[in-house]
Design goal:
By secondary structure, this protein is an alpha+beta fold. The chain has one domain: Ubiquitin-like (UB roll) (Roll), CATH 3.10.20. It has helices at residues 30-47, 79-91; strands spanning 2-9, 15-24, 27-29, 52-53, 62-65, 68-71, 95-99, 102-104, 110-112, 118-123. A hairpin with a 2-residue loop joins strand 7 and strand 8. The chain is globular.
């Protein structure tokens, strides 16, 4: 069984957050890893719902806020809906993923968690006027 570290960084490489998930198979696709991450984020939020969500992608009807998203009211997050949003964001370059030192580019790409136990997620922000 493998342990993976999910880490968020800025485009300049500044670490923002990280956490580990243990007991994983030795290999998973990028899609499975994104869905796992989203499920963990939603579960953490749903234990104590608030009007603030700190996750990889913006939930429906939320506003971007400093280091997260503001919900109109405290509510549970549907992890499956968030996973759909995250997959679309990955495919449209809303964020990218580094496994070890290499960028993964396909949702079906298999990541060897024995050799690449650190996954770095870098959100890209749209430039004003761009």
């Amino acid at each position: 069984m493998a342990t993976v570290t999910f880490r968020d960084e800025t485009a300049a490489g500044k670490p923002l957050t990280d956490w580990e998930v243990a007991g994983l198979p030795e290999q998973m696709t990028v899609r499975e890893l994104i869905r796992l991450r989203i499920r963990e984020e939603a579960a953490r939020h749903n234990t104590r719902p608030s009007d603030r969500y700190n996750g990889l992608v913006r939930p429906d009807d939320a506003e971007t806020d400093l280091n997260g998203y503001r919900l109109r009211e405290p509510r549970h997050i549907d992890w499956q809906r968030q996973a759909e949003i995250a997959e679309r964001a990955f495919l449209t370059n809303g964020f990218f993923v580094l496994a070890g030192e290499r960028q993964v580019e396909d949702l079906e790409e298999v990541v060897d968690l024995r050799g690449d136990p650190d996954l770095v997620f870098i959100k890209l922000v749209a430039l004003v006027g761009g």
